[in-house]
Amino acid sequence: MQDEFYIKRCIELAQKAIGKTYPNPLVGSLIVHNGKIIGEGYHHKAGENHAEINAINSVKDKSLIPESTIYVSLEPCAHFGKTPPCALKIKELGFKKVVIGAMDSHDKVNGKGKKIIQDAGIEAVSGILEKECIELNKRFFTYHEKKRPFIILKWAESGDGFLDKNFKPTPISNSLVNQLVHQLRADEHAILVGTQTALNDNPGLTVRNMLGINPVRILIDFDLKVPQYFRIYNNEAKTLIFNTIKEETIDNIQFIRMEKENFLSNLMNNLYKEQIQSVIIEGGRFTLQEFINAGLWDEAVVIKNKNLKLENGTKAPEFNNKPIKVETFRDNLVEFYNK
After folding, report:
1. Which of 39, 90, 91, 116 could form an SS bridge with 58, CB 3.0 to 4.6 Å?
2. How many CB atoms lie within 10 A of CB 326?
3. pLDDT tens-digit profile of 208-245?
4. How many other C-beta atoms can be found within 10 angstroms of the C-beta atom of residue 96?
5. Would you call the peptide bond into 23 cis, given omega within 30 degrees of 0 as the criterion?
6. Whether 75 is catalytic
7. What is the pTM of this model?
8. Residue of 4, 12, 48, 52 marked active site
């Protein structure tokens, strides 16, 4: 039970960096000596110290380390990247014990970190609150195991099932829900829209209402119909434009040529190559329905304004799943789905 208590704290620490560590996972770590926490840390962003190093650096009396246990929510890395392997640092300092939440399925780690530690004669246990630790890094695990981003569908619909009125942009969600949507954007790596949504709404796809990093913007625009003076082309975020015409990079805008045939499969391959770990599909209906029909999604967030009747316009996607959770935000319901 003590191990679970400390791994839970590791998860809490790791969550402080949601949306900021790509392409690295979220990791928290703490160091315990005789039942007392003497150090803790988490991975803040790619290229900076990993969680274990931040936890080690926070220990005031380093002489206690050989008699201490280090807890970490994800298996310590075993390869040289932008920083040296944490498993080697743990071995060098000679911790008494290492407790790991979940093993790392990345092919550069995948048991190698734990093996380095055990080969050094240090006791190592894993699988503590494993389910919770995997959930923490659902984006990272999906990306490495399924070779595609973690996919979240998102849309807002009226009480009578429309996305807009008379095919023109129509506010559906209230200001509270808009904040939730911007938090969702800040938490994920990328956000995707199709040609029609970009033309109709001229969206910026940023996190204007929250503190956070703007997601990578993805536009599916096969014939490059969206004018380059539209907001999706501004310099506020890295932007990938999937099209059938050209391949080039201009400042923050990257044009990626892709055939229309096997569109979803090609898109997933390209996003994997671009190291996009998670993506929110924000529309429009055609794009959302393509993902739904292919069963290509992991979570969905559907906002419903029950009192709003629009009578005519773009129909909401056909989606016959049951929510795992429903939250009320004044006159809006937000339904959360897991596949």
Report:
1. 39
2. 11
3. 766 678 899 999 999 999 999 999 999 999 999 999 99
4. 14
5. yes
6. no
7. 0.91
8. 52
